[in-house]
Amino acid sequence: MQINQHAILSCAPMMDWTDRHCRYLHRLLSRDVLLYTEMVTAPALVRGGALHLLEFHPAEHPVALQLGGSDPRELVQAARLGAAAGYDEINLNVGCPSDRVQSGCFGAVLMEQPGLVADCVTAMRDAVDVDVTVKCRIGVDDQNPEEVLPEFLARIVAAGCERVTIHARKAWLQGLSPKENRDIPPLDYPLVQRMKGLFPNLHISINGGISSLEEAQGFLDAGLDGVMIGRAAYHQPADILCRADRLIFGSGRDSTPEQAARAMLPYIEAHLSGGGRLHQVTRHMLGLFAGRPGARGWRRTLSEGAVRAGAGPDLVEAALAQISALDTQAHAV
Fold first, then answer.
1. Nearest-angstrom CA–CA distance, 236 and 256
2. pLDDT tens per residue across span 259-272
3. Distances in Å between the alpha carbon of 169 and those of 157, 188, 223, 230, 246?
4. Is 136 a catalytic residue?
């Protein structure tokens, strides 16, 4: 599978959000967008044996595994597990600013250790046949991004990294919470765009604050190789994903949230029959009809009903019926 062609548009890895149920839904909305797992730490896989974290549905392809870690030997073992599980790409997290990540010496704190990141990339590339990529920030704390980002990219390119995603904000490891780090540090899109001029052969995707396909297309038209969208793709998935195949990839037809919701029903049945709970799946479906008449009722029906004992696909069908009734009324007016 040629991952580069799918990396034109991707959904960001997001902790507690982009689990396998979320990714299955997103794949129903778009055939071409590249999907990422939540960050999985190498120690959890290698020392903790948490191989269930690697589970995914074959329909999710193309799908990438994001790893967190800083020990090249441990990352090699984790990358091998990911490649054996069937992931199309292994991505190293050099961007997450959480306290837990800092204490484990991985994530954004690694922006201060480009040599170590390069060692990790080299080790993983030598160990697996799938793409090894990096997701990073433009810098951390008092670093000068104009100086540190080119050096960082040069090191990982020399290590053999051919594709990088840059979140166009600094991470403030001291003084800001992970949530604040997603909004408060200013975005510097022009810096990321200048990196493309310095590294013309490096596939560079931009990430951070992008909320529409029109914005994404603007970055592609300006010469960047890819765009990664996070919160907008999660909270308003139809706005981002339903038209992506046609507008961004030039393939296929638009999907609809109704089609996706109905296609989720067999998946939900299988999940429940395996001992799962409805809310584990439907929590990712709350934003499907964002901006549409009935969106509030859809969210309320699912969020209140899915946690009840015995809740099943009929709850989703009932919520869909409410949306359909409103659409019928709107067309009748």
1. 12
2. 999 999 999 999 99
3. 21, 6, 19, 14, 30
4. no
